[in-house]
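thoughts on my protein:
***
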Amino acid sequence: MALFYDLHIHSALSPCAENDMTPATIAGLCKLNGADVIALADHNSALNLPAAKAACEAYGLQLLPAIEVNTAEEIHVLCYFKTVEQALKMGEILYDHLPIYGYDEAIWGRQLVMDADDKETQCVEKLLTGAVDLDIYDIVKLCQSFGGIAVPAHADKDSYSLLSVLGFQPPDLHFDVIELAHPEKYEAYCKAGLLQPGMEVIHSSDAHSLSMLQENFMLLCSTNPLHQLLGVQTK
């Protein structure tokens, strides 16, 4: 069964997102806009996924648990999981690999962890948008060790992307799914030797504010590997 999706949304846990990007507000607006499944994908952390799962259940949405990792090369990789628990475990590892330096929320923005009622429960001390000291190969393996699927985020954007950093997709770096800002250009990217053929292509909002949330959604077909993660989701 095909599902209308937005698989790249940031909550107020990401310091670059607006504070009103709370799990319940995101879920409610996405449901009103016609989504069937969403993924909360905060930078290097899964701490708002329990609240997002509760909100999605309340609104009749499916949640695909996710984290957007910033690798050592400064490449953003979306990691998707079957369960929130798997994402939380990977998030704990990522937190240990983040750099330790002074974090000023007045400069970078707040990093808000929410409960199911959108009440703030804590602020994260390390800057979550920093690069972990694990390269893209390490992140892919780590994600797969938790049963997840790693997907290059906005791979054709001008920054923090596979093509902007490496210039092309290395032959030994295989993905089943890739996120593109311009999905219609995928075949051209492949013909130019920049990307490998045969990947499923997704396109999402990468929303950091309520105004960026999608109103028109693409369909996630049942043949897409990410669809296979939408089974039983425990905490």
Notes: The mean pLDDT is 95. The two ends are 24 Å apart (CA to CA). The longest strand covers residues 3-9.
